[in-house]
Every structure is written in structure tokens, then in C-alpha cells.
Known about the structure:
about 240 residues; alpha/beta; globular; TIM Barrel; binds pyridoxine-5'-phosphate
Amino acid sequence: MRLGVNVDHIATLRQARKTSNPDPKDAARICEQAGASSIVCHLREDRRHIQDTDVWRLRQSITTRLNLEMSIAKGIVAIALAVKPAQVTLVPERRQELTTEGGLDIVNLRGRLKRVVRTFQERGIEVSLFVDPIIRQLQAAQDLGVEMIELHTGRYAEASAPRLRLHQLRQLSKAAQAARKLEISVAAGHGLDYDNVSAVVEIPEIEELNIGYAIIRRALFVGLQDAVREMVGLVSVPS
Length: 239
Ligand code: PXP
């Protein structure tokens, strides 16, 4: 299974002082050397962490793939089309949220999404949609012709009661199976950490995990290279 590392929180730290360090570009290089298959960043409309220049510089410097997370707001779409990352992951975005709190409502946003998805695909940019593990949302994703979906693992990660956690894991597994039947590649992410990731790694239909916060948090104590290496180890070997 591949690991994409989200470097947003390197920029969160930098923005605390509005200086030029730490630089997400430097972090991305270390992540790649430590085994990350792709680098993820989220250009939020409020620019709370990643800035426009970060996206350009990451695009120019990374040697794996840039996966740009983004909303479908016009200004953000225009930047993404100019930068031309290998992949975009379309997510819902609310200004007040601390992080992306739910998946896209593809069923209701079908019309707008169709135009945006087509625009990216015509320019050779792969599109992934961030979705909750709900079958009708996956069917709507297939109608849009996207290459990939990313299952939102937040409910699983937040479930503290074992039965609820198992229930959420089963939902993820069923959704991953359904997506593969629809011939859509499956990624997953959000809230995954060193303790909860192994159960998700055991879902064979999931090809990629995108993880940010837990890795950057651990990097404060063990360094970024080891933090990524440890996660690559957990993601590569099913327990
Ligand atoms: N995938 C998507 C689509 C996200 O929005 C996020 C959060 O930016 C992540 C993965 C990573 O989540 P976390 O930082 O909790 O690992």
C-alpha cells in the first residue's frame, strides 16, 4: 500500500510566525527520501497553512507525485489548473472547521463537480473525490468518471468504543469493495495514526493512505525521516 504524506502542518508551524521556515518543500524532500509515494497539500481558501507559492514550489521540487487537496471554489480551481499537479483531490471546505470534517456530497453537487472534473481531466490531471463510505456517493463518483476516490476515515479514527470502531471499519471495507467493483481506485485518509492504521491496511481494496497530522506530530519527537519511515513500515506490511 502506498503512503502519501500531507505536509500542511509544516506550513501551520511556519505561519505561526509568518516567516519562511520550516519550509514544506524541505519537508517533502525528507518524506520522499523516507519512502513516501506522494506529497499531499491542501490549499485552503483562507490560506491558513499552505500558501500559493508553496504549491508552485512543491510542484517544481518533488520527485514523486503532488496530490493537491482543494475545494471547487473558482479561484482555487484556477490556481490548480495553472500549477498542474499530478492529481487533485476535491474536498468540501468550511471556513470554521479545524480540518476537513466530512466527505463531498457528490449526489447533490453532481452538476458543479461534473464541470470541474472534466476540466481537470482534459488537462491530464487525475481527479480523486474525498467521500464518506456511502454506496450511493460512490455510484455518483462513478457517473462522474473519476479515476479515484478517497474514503474519509475520520469516523473510524474518532470511534473510541470498540463496537463502533468495528462498525466503521466494516463500512470502510464495504465501500472499498463497492468502489473496486465500480472500477474506481481507492485511497483513504483522515485521522489515521500509528495505532489505528493497521486495521485499515488490512482492507485489500485500499491502495493508498494519505496521512498528515499524526506524522508531523510524531516528527517533533523522533524527526521527520523516522516518523515517515515508521509509517511506511506500518502501511507496507499488513499485520
Ligand atoms: N486526506 C484528506 C482528503 C484530508 O483532507 C486530510 C486532512 O487534510 C488528510 C487526508 C490527512 O488527514 P490527517 O492530517 O488527519 O492525517
